[in-house]
Amino acid sequence: MINSGNFLQIIQTQNPTLLEALQEGIKGYLIIGFIASILLVYIVVPMCIWLLSQLRGRLIKVLAAFVRLLAYMVDFLFIFFMRIFRVKKIPNMLDFNGDWLSNYANKQTVNRHAFIMSYKNKRKKVALLIIAFFISFFTLSDRYRWYEKSVAVEKIYLSINDVFTYADGLKEQLLAENSIAVAVENVTITYIKLNKGEPMGNIRSEGSLSAEQIGVAKAGETLEFLQEEKKDGKRIWYKVRTAKGQVGWISGAISSKVEVVQSKP
Questions:
Q1: Are 247 and 226 in contact (CB under 8 A)?
Q2: Closest CA to 143 of 10, 24, 7, 35
Q3: Of 24, 110, 138, 221, which has the most beta carbons under 10 Å away?
Q4: Cβ distance 201 to 254 under 8 Å?
Q5: Hey, where are the domains in the chain?
Q6: SS (H, E, C) the chain
Q7: Range 195-263: architecture per CATH
Q8: Phi and psi dihedrals of 61, rounded to 5?
Q9: What is the spatial order of strands in the sheet that 213-218 belongs to?
Q10: pTM score, two decimals?
Q11: What residues are paired with 241 via a beta bridge?
């Protein structure tokens, strides 16, 4: 089975710290931050300022023209009504032609130029801040990427380890079941056979020469030993069962034990 402690230690060792990630990619981070700061500070921001100023200036011009047109229409209506009522001297009651918008636009232009000059004086500081931001961002990003990689590898390892653990447990279970099965199936059975040269032997009802003869065992016949024996003087008698199921005793003087290992289902 896989050693989980060593494997997880390797994963944690390969996962760099923030300082290691910074040292590894500092050159690339500086290049990216420098290029990004140049683009943002010297191109993107000035273009945005110019675009906003152009849009604002055009909007003010449109509003000024609209206000002038509105003033002319009001003056025309005022003069028209005065002539209807036969007023000889027509005072200029409405002197509103939108010049205040032009003054406002000029003031905003001055403010915009002041803002641009202030921004030019701070461009280097802004560029340094942008470079520092990109270095920090990419360092944390690489650190998180390594962390995600280690987590993914650890998940894969744990899934593989579970498979191996299950396989090892299954193997041990099969070995245990096999050993039990072998112990159960391999059975030693003891039989009784006539000694070599004995043509036949009497089977009696009891372990004694005076007991009634109930059967005859022929040469080569196998009798099942019933795990019981007795002595009659110096003679040993074995309790046996014939192939036909007859139970009796046979003398040990003409027979002997034979052990046979058999497999039973």
A1: yes
A2: 24
A3: 138
A4: yes
A5: 4-164, 195-263
A6: CCCHHHHHHHHHHHCCCHHHHHHHHHHHHHHHHHHHHHHHHHHHHHHHHHHHHHHHHHHHHHHHHHHHHHHHHHHHHHHHHHHHCCCCCCCCCCCCCCHHHHHHHHHHHHHHHHHHHHHHHCHHHHHHHHHHHHHHHHHHHHHHHHHHHHHHHHHHHHHHHHHHHHHHHHHHHHHHHHHHHHHHHEEEEEEEEECCCCCEEEEECCCCCCCCEEEEEECCCEEEEEEEEEEECCEEEEEEECCCCCEEEEECCCEEEEEEEEECC
A7: Roll (2.30)
A8: -65, -40
A9: 213-218, 200-204, 247-251, 235-241, 222-232, 186-194, 255-263
A10: 0.32
A11: 224, 247
Q: What length is written for the chain?
A: 265
Q: Tokens 């005076």 label which residue? A: 210
pLDDT surpassing 70 at residue 206: yes
Residue 241: closest CA among 230, 257, 226, 262: 226
* Distances in whole angstroms, Cα of residue 41 to Cα of each of 26, 29, 85, 203: 21, 18, 65, 120
Number of Cβ within 10 Å of residue 204's Cβ equals 19
pLDDT digits (tens, 9 = 90+) for 169-186: 666 777 766 665 545 556
User: Any idea which residue has 């047109």 for tokens?
Assistant: 69
In the structure encoding, which two tokens stand for residue 253, read together?
Answer: 């003087």
In the numeric block, which tokens belong to residue 16? 């760099």
